[in-house]
Fold this sequence. Notes:
Layout: H1 4-10, E1 17-20, H2 27-39, E2 48-52, H3 55-70, H4 80-99, E3 111-114, H5 115-125, E4 136-137, H6 141-157, H7 165-174, H8 179-190, H9 197-200, H10 208-231, H11 236-242, H12 248-251, H13 264-274, H14 296-309, H15 313-321, H16 332-359, E5 361-362, H17 364-377, E6 386-387, E7 390-391, E8 394-397, H18 405-414, E9 425-430, H19 445-453, E10 461-464, E11 467-468, H20 473-486, E12 504-505, E13 515-520, H21 525-542, E14 548-552, H22 559-567, E15 572-574, H23 584-597, H24 602-610, H25 618-625, H26 632-635, H27 639-642, H28 647-665, H29 672-683, H30 691-709, H31 715-723, E16 734-738, H32 739-742, E17 747-752, E18 767-771, E19 777-781, H33 792-817, E20 820-829, H34 841-849, H35 899-917, H36 924-934, H37 941-957, H38 961-964, E21 972-979, E22 982-992, E23 995-1001, H39 1012-1035, E24 1041-1048, E25 1053-1057
Amino acid sequence: MSDQAQRDEALDVTRSFIVQAPAGSGKTELLAQRYLKLLSICDDPENVMAMTFTNKAVDELTERVLSSLKSTNEPRPKQAHKQITYDLALKVMERSQNRNWQLLQMPQRLKIFTIDGLSSLITGRYPTPLQLVPPRIMAQDWERKKVYRLAAEQVLVMIDDEEHSKVISSLLLYLDNNIEKFYRLTTSMLAKRDQWLTRLYLGDTLDPSILQDSASKIVTQHLSHLEKEAKQCIGQDFFDLIAVNTKDEYAQIQSLPASGVEDLSVWKGLSSLCLKKDGLWRKSLNKNNGFPPELKVQKQAFEKILQTLGARESLTQLLGGVNRLPDVDFSELEIQALQDIAQVLKLCVARLNLLFEREQAHDFIEVALRADHALDDRSNISDMALFLDYKVQHILIDEFQDTSASQFNLIKKLIFHWQADDGRTLFLVGDPMQSIYRFRESQVGLFLQVKAKGIANTMPKSLKLSTNFRSSKSIVAGNNRFFEKIFPHEEDVYQGAIRYSESISDSDLTNDHAIVFHPFAHDQYQAEAVSVLEIINNALSENPKGEIAILVRTRSHLSDIVDVLKVHGIDFESIKTNPLKDHLLIRDLLSLTKALLHLGDKLAWLSVLRAPWCGLLLEDLLVFSEHDDLIIYEQLSDPKILNQLTQDGKKRAQHIAQSLSSVINNQARFDFVEILTHAIDQLGIVPSLSPQELMIKNQFLQIIFDCESQQLLNIETIEATLEDLYAPSKTAQVKLMTIHQSKGLEFDTVIIPGLGRKPRSDNAPIMRMREFANRSLLLAPIKSFTDSEDSNTYNYLKFIESQQDKFETMRLLYVAMTRAKNNLHLLGALTKNNKANAKSLLNMLMQFYEGHFDDVDIDNQQDAIKSLDAPKLERFTHLKSVLQEENGQGESVEYNKKFELLFKSLLGTLVHQYYEQGLFNPDKKNVEIKLIESGISPNDLDQYAQYVIKLLDSTKQDSQFEWLFKQRESTLVEAEFVNGDTVIAIDRLFIDDDVLWIIDFKTASLLDDESESQFVQRQKSEHTKQLLFYQEVLSKIYPNNIKCALYCPAVQKIIEIS
């Protein structure tokens, strides 16, 4: 049956709709069509606002709209659905021309963005009173984790404050004084504070009587459903047989209990008698259940009753559920723990906000919270849907099933003043059967809630699409058969239970083998990988141009498959599946970065020597590793050590020394990203890289640039950044991705391996909290270190979470299986016990494929597969000749410096750092640590530490010290200025008596037999050109008279340059 009538109705732009659009139904096209129709009748394009949840989806919808508008210059298409889009686009272009919108020239007038983007726009429109500059968004996961952890650490330090000591100490003791656990639990709560922050501190949330009332309502509601169900199937004969039971706790139950809290213990007794621990009905009874041999007749009669009751699924679930209900009474320890947790979390949020202010940055959650607050603060305005001075008349939201509670509240407040028949419309599109983003806090129940009750004052009409334009008739029929039985039959807003909605294929293509199941025994993952290879080869032979997708639940499930595909030469495209940090080139570049940042990092330098650009053999590496008295960079130019190497090793070591000498000698003069880029060029890395590796190299340099520009250039930050990124991949017919990545995509052949694998487990939160239909709130703390088990309330809330996970697992399988156009292959392995893991995708399919495992060869678990050899050493055959360069300002770069001069240069850099920090009396230990990082060998540590301290002391004793380092408002240190393509850095800059002084620090020493006047003349000769260039650049910026000078602490002189 066609759903064209619903599609036509959805284009009635005078009414609001919520549209349920299953996989392959063309919902994005329908959304674009409505967007176009609204543009064709509105006063300005800004009157129409479309929102979705990812930047990728924003780009796709924007491109679809613009392509439609551009297509109006072409002939009208023949397909009916494309004709609708074409005709609507024509009307938009006519209106655009009549009203001079210039949409193709100014596409930014199309208001299509993410909901997070909307939050940013609202906070930007209504900033806080103290907010002068829009804060930066912490887009990187590592940066958010770092600031959460810092907030938690600062709160723990407050344990010494009299005001907060008691509550922090109490919570820490509750956690057995486990500091890391304290950090882990508090930071995880900060990462999802939008779920609890607006509810935890409302009114009497933590009042024991309120919590008790919430728990009581849950218990009585459950028992009332159970009582109603039991009355329909449990008669007096049931209780007559119980009466003869030899156990008093059962025999005293004479009739069905009521549904009060006081009846819970009786229901638990009945559950214990009738059900096993796994929640299934008992098939046999014995004396342990109160039916000894002498009660054989009664026992058999009761067993028969239980067998009949076992067919009632609802009764089974309700009776089993009595053992999972929350405690009605909360202990004093639990109440105190909740109060302590709430107080500590409030402190954590306060510290987090201070950190946000300090960094002038915040996370996405803070953006949403501030947007929500901004709408509350301006509630006196008649219409909050003001946007860039235009009133929003129409809102469209795609993927509405992925809305979180905070996003839902934002939308609700945005349209709060809308009234029926005021000309404004809301258009919500989504598929609750594809809601798979609970980890992003999406709540599929909100879709059902809006269908039933509307949102704010808007009651959209519900429409349901059913036509599938993607998959063949056989695929659609198979998925209908599977999911009609897999999905729940009753919907539940709060548990996220969604009823299945059948699709009708638009295709007549049938294939008896469209869906194929491949069973495997426990741990036969390599055998699975081989089967995947065979499926790919068969698919490519049948359809050489067809796209093939391998979909997995988590990235780690791809490892065996990737190995097999590589061995057999199958080109594949990895879509966010290969962590960037694991790529060999990244590992080599990271080692080079470590080596250049810290010359004394022995392991990093050994890795540099092993990398392809050098490729030393192990026997040569061993020579360098045995000498601890010299850093490896020194060893590279030591004749005695070089002579111990093989002839090839000596040549390669000298090449590295020559390549990196200019790099290291100039470290103090350039940004590190420039130094690293120069090192890469000198080593001759680029010509050997593939297009993909070139992208990876550029991606790594961008990371270095970003870290350096944020003054976070350290290995910890670089590695943390790499954690969140994935290596780019070449385009190929075979695509590897997670099921989440595949959402919205389609492929000729879909392969889903690893169905039997279980998902990653989540850590238990410090507190569980849930709001129920009656607006009651239930909370429970994690167990104390003195408790062996969590409370019934905590476990009840955990069970609700697990139910939501179970229903989302069903939807995840649905998303995966509905990506296929023509062929679908399912591969799954059992556990050791020859059962499907309870939390696996395979468990959902076992009712259809259980018999398929009967013929699986359990003993032969290792199928024949090409052996995977260890990676061979890769190294350049021809080493790049090193160019001797000159500095742009005419100062020669000296390549043959002695190491003493090299380290003097590094010492000068360290002294510059102390000058910059205004630190003239550093602790000797502090200096030694800095020197070790710079690569000074232990034998020379004391000598060079004394040298640095002497220079700093000499500076402080200088008669002109107070004038030179005086704190002035105009003072700038390490000031950078751009002159065309050149960036100059000036050590110290200040205005004194209306004269702009450019000061350049030089830590050079007198040469042997050199007089002070000769030293001054040499410094002038070497640096005059450089300082006059600085003077020329700054004369274009500052109106002041400009003077230049060198400061040389070795002779305690300021040398003016003219």
